[in-house]
Amino acid sequence: MTDVQTQPAISTAQPEDFFQLLKPRVMSLVVFTAATGLVVAPGSINPLVAAIAVLCIAVGAGAAGALNMALEGETDALMRRTRGRPVAAGRVKKNDAMAFGVILSLFSVMLLGMNANWLAAGLLAMTIVYYAGFYTLLLKRRTPQNIVIGGAAGAFPPVIGWAAATGQAPWQAWLLFAIIFLWTPPHSWALALYSAGDYAKAGIPMMPVAKGAKSTRLQILLYTLVFVPVAIAPAFVGLGGLIYLVVSVAGGLGFLGLALRLYRSRAGDEPDKAEAVGREAALYDVRAQAKPARDLFAFSILYLMALFSALLVEALSGLGA
Amino acid sequence: MRLTPEELRARKRRNVWIAAALVAFIVLVFSTTVLRLQQNQASERALLEAATGTTAQ
């Protein structure tokens, strides 16, 4: 009886809730990296075609996010970082989120195919299926390598941008893919080191949960040792110029320094005291020991933005290699 | 079924946004079609010029 009275007859979800389903923060990074791929690709592209292509890639990525939230609603509700999401909080029904994601996926892929070319559209479709299907449904709960393999989904946008501009996806585009792909594990595991309790509660085998903090810190360092040279590589293969070289080397050294500091720290070792007493701690309200992890997480975002900004600035100003 | 004012308001706002999104989609498809036509015409003209060795009027 009470249920009948409290349950709304129709959805009371607001447009803002549906916008949140698109993961706007992730979308902004997608827009940025896709636009960079599109701009640094050789040749010229009509500005309107370019703008529509970037919009399609952004909406496609958002659609993948909506599908992810629809499929992960129950898990999201268990974690502090995600419990406010529209499906987890009960503001949007799972089926509505699913329908929203499917419709946006179809429209964005179709429009990208019509506007740019079908290679770009195919890559976008593959990215959506990879993220929502392969990563969310299969990988995430099965292996601590989830973020390594699943990270490919976030690395596709510059390749799609490049393909939209040229109709091809040469190795230079895949170098941009490799930068984001190798950047993802140290970035995500740094975050996981100070929110491992949440992941454990939700039953997600993130690296610190499955292998422990010490192993995670070592793997972050090892990935960083591979990532930094790859991040610098565009300066030596004709993709980046002097600005890119300076930014990638200086930032790379900073990244390496922070990864080394994290490796030597005890970040992630102790149980979260805030959780132990059941206090509602904010995500960034972390213990002092976790500071190196938090610093690396913040710096990793800054470094990736700086790398792609340098490429973008050089391409737009003609200062590139 | 009687809807509450809150439900009605939410539905109206969603409908307005759906309408706006549909209009935006129509504009994008129209723009894409026009651009494609222009590009095809330009490449056809270039092919004709290459074949005849003259500048098309």
What's the arrangement of secondary structure elements?
The complex is a heterodimer of chains A (321) and B (57).
Chain A: H1 2-6, H2 15-21, H3 24-40, H4 47-76, H5 94-115, H6 118-139, H7 146-155, H8 157-166, H9 171-193, H10 196-202, H11 207-211, H12 213-232, H13 242-264, H14 273-276, H15 291-317
Chain B: H1 5-52
Function (chain A): Converts heme B (protoheme IX) to heme O by substitution of the vinyl group on carbon 2 of heme B porphyrin ring with a hydroxyethyl farnesyl side group.
Transmembrane segments (chain A): 26-45, 51-71, 92-112, 118-139, 146-165, 171-197, 218-236, 242-263, 296-319
Keywords (chain A): Cell membrane, Heme biosynthesis, Membrane, Transferase, Transmembrane, Transmembrane helix
Number of domains of chain A: 2
Radius of gyration of chain A: 20 Å
Overall form of chain B: rod-shaped
How much is the average pLDDT of chain B?
89
Q: What is the terminal separation of chain A in angstroms?
A: 71 Å
- The CATH architecture of the largest domain in chain A can be given as Orthogonal Bundle
Instruction: Report low-confidence residues of chain B grouped into runs of 5 or more.
Output: none
Q: What is the CATH level 1 assignment of the largest domain in chain A?
A: Mainly Alpha
Q: Work out the strand percent of chain A.
A: under 5%
CATH topology of the largest domain in chain A: Tetracycline Repressor, domain 2
- Give the SSE string of chain B: H
Helix content of chain A: over 70%
Mean pLDDT of chain A: 90
Beta content of chain B comes to under 5%
GO biological process, one term (chain A): heme O biosynthetic process
Protein name (chain A): Protoheme IX farnesyltransferase
Family (chain A): Belongs to the UbiA prenyltransferase family. Protoheme IX farnesyltransferase subfamily.
GO molecular function (chain A): protoheme IX farnesyltransferase activity
